[in-house]
Design a protein that fits this description.
Blueprint (H helix, E strand, L loop, with lengths): L11 H21 L2 H7 L4 H27 L3 H24 L4 H29 L5 H27 L3 H19 L16 H4 L5 H27 L7 H19 L2 H5 L2 H20 L3 H27 L7 H30 L1 H21 L8 H8 L1
Helix pairs in contact: 1-5, 1-6, 1-7, 2-3, 3-5, 3-14, 4-5, 4-7, 5-14, 6-10, 6-13, 9-13, 9-14, 9-15, 10-13, 12-13, 12-15, 14-15
């Protein structure tokens, strides 16, 4: 019998942090994916909605290294509570814009605030998860934790679209209620005790160098997801050859993503992240080519299934790689480094996609964004697979 199986993975606190993380991403992404519609409702273009996506990610990126530093000083639970409360309150700000002051400047301000509190929330959940997980089943556990993130990423647009159809007020109120549920779950969460230490604030403390290879690979890959997450709903609504709802795309993606994590999620423990880097980038390249060149109902659903595998396989595997050799006192920095890259990739992808759509249309946008999958693989081959943080590299050198 595999000795790793004797190590308990599923504990009360691990389940709680997974569920909290799922709700954090659900709050964020059901607003993120419908925000172009909200911006249009206010009377502005896709370029403006792309700017909103970019400033959200920019603020999250600026905040994450400092949040990681604070987490590494032992303030895990305090930072998580701050993030949850902030994500509860920000949708109330969107409601104010909707009902009282229809100001794009105020909308951008609340997007920036949302970026900050989101950074607090999911940097904290990732760090707490790495504290809870047993080392012998670390990659498997990060895969299960990542499944919640990826499932939320896949199903949130469909949830957001359904709520938006009842009105933006319903959407924003529901986002706040979700975080109220998180507060209840938070009350039952026991975070492993990490001694509070005094750490000098410096660039070296803010960024974890060992997490950089995985982070750069995922940054480039997620430019594709930034484009899909922001504009698939509008693409489906505007493309005459597609008669299906954009929400169906993300539902199919969610199903495939779940199957990916259940059926192949343990592969990272046995073989490392390499198999996911190659196959997931290849599948995402195919997704974008299908949407660009042969958009119809069949290819729309096929691309949804392929993107479910691509995102569901690569993101958790690379996060496990980023954090795998970090000691407890550096896990906050390692997670914040990886998640900074996550935000930058999605932010650049969303912002660039909005500009390209206005300038050249959806077809050329998808074709240009597809190039990032090739670049992601090249970076991994040159840098990532030879780095000590690579689980594939360590597995091969143990053999």
């Amino acid at each position: 019998m595999d000795n790793n199986k004797k190590v308990k993975l599923w504990t009360k606190d691990f389940v709680l942090i997974i569920v909290i993380n799922f709700f954090v991403f659900l709050n964020h992404l059901m607003i993120f994916s419908t925000f172009p519609f909200f911006v249009s409702h206010l009377g502005y273009s896709d370029t403006v909605s792309g700017i909103c996506a970019a400033v959200f990610s920019f603020v999250a990126v600026i905040c994450r290294p400092f949040i990681g530093w604070m987490l590494d000083t032992g303030r895990r639970k305090r930072i998580l509570l701050t993030g949850i409360c902030g994500m509860l309150l920000v949708p109330v700000g969107y409601l104010a814009v909707l009902t009282a002051v229809a100001s794009i400047a105020l909308t951008v301000f609340f997007r920036m605030a949302h970026g900050c509190v989101f950074a607090c929330s999911n940097t904290s959940t990732s760090t707490v998860a790495t504290d809870i997980l047993p080392k012998p089943r670390f990659a498997e556990g990060m895969g299960m934790f990542g499944m919640a993130t990826a499932l939320a990423t896949a199903c949130a647009p469909a949830v957001g679209e359904a709520l938006m159809s009842k009105g933006f007020g319903v959407l924003f109120l529901s986002a706040s209620v979700i975080m109220a549920v998180c507060l209840v779950l938070f009350a039952f969460l026991k975070v492993p005790s990490i001694p509070q230490v005094q750490k000098r604030l410096s660039f070296k403390e803010l960024i974890d160098r060992d997490a950089l290879p995985a982070s750069v690979v995922v940054l480039v890959f997620l430019m594709t997801y930034g484009a899909l997450e922001n504009y698939t709903l509008k693409f489906a609504a505007e493309e005459e050859a597609i008669t299906l709802s954009g929400g169906i795309y993300f539902t199919v993606m969610a199903v495939m993503l779940f199957l990916t994590r259940v059926l192949v999620g343990k592969a990272a423990d046995r073989r490392g992240e390499e198999i996911f880097v190659y196959t997931c980038n290849s599948f995402m390249f195919a997704v974008l080519i299908l949407l660009a060149l042969v958009p119809n109902n069949v290819t729309f659903l096929l691309s949804a299934a392929l993107s479910g595998y691509a995102f569901g396989g690569l993101e958790p595997a690379l996060q496990a790689m980023a954090v795998s050799i970090a000691p407890p006192e550096r896990r906050g920095a390692a997670n914040s480094t990886f998640l900074c890259a996550y935000d930058i990739g999605i932010g650049i992808g969303g912002g660039l996609a909005g500009i390209l759509i206005d300038a050249a249309g959806y077809e050329k946008m998808y074709l240009i964004i597809a190039a990032s999958t090739i670049i992601s693989v090249i970076i991994y081959v040159i840098w990532g697979r030879k780095h000590l943080s690579s689980m594939t590299y360590r597995i091969r050198h143990r053999a």
